[in-house]
Write a structure and sequence with these properties.
The structure is a single chain. The chain has 123 residues and is α+β, with helices and mostly antiparallel strands. The protein has one domain: OB fold (Dihydrolipoamide Acetyltransferase, E2P). The protein contains 2 helices and 5 strands; from the N terminus they run αβββαββ. A 5-stranded antiparallel β-sheet has the order 3-2-1-4-5. Strand 2 and strand 3 form a beta hairpin. The longest helix has 24 residues. It is elongated, with a radius of gyration of 19 Å.
């Protein structure tokens, strides 16, 4: 009976580790989004995460919410610098997120300011 119990516990632990590794390392999708960077802030009570929003159209309905992992200091600095400007964000989407990584399933991997696409009222 003890052997069975040990094997069952080991199987549960391996399945749990496999699930977390799959969710963390396997991207669901990857892509690029462009728009005005309207919000970027650090928020949270116990674990602080970097969260932002990109406006992708004239109406306020087309918003792209995203997160940035803490270790990406260059991306965080660039997003703070480009606040209110037209940017291109390269991202990947996870199947799920963990509370210590961010609120969304979209994580930014690259930021570029698109100087050619700046709205006429910001030039």
């Amino acid at each position: 009976m003890k052997k069975f119990l040990y094997k069952l516990i080991a199987a549960i632990v391996l399945v749990t580790i496999g699930y977390f590794c799959f969710v963390y390392f396997v991207p669901y999708s990857e892509g690029v989004r462009s728009g005005d960077l309207i919000k970027f802030s650090k928020k949270g009570v116990f674990t602080k995460t970097w969260e932002g929003e990109l406006s992708q159209g004239v109406s306020e309905e087309q918003r792209f919410a995203f997160s940035v992992e803490k270790g990406n200091k260059k991306i965080i600095e660039d997003l703070q610098k480009y606040q209110g400007r037209f940017v291109r964000l390269t991202y990947f989407e996870r199947y799920r997120t963990f509370f210590w990584l961010g609120d969304t399933v979209y994580f930014i991997t690259k930021v570029e300011e698109d100087k050619d696409r700046q709205p006429f009222y910001k030039k």
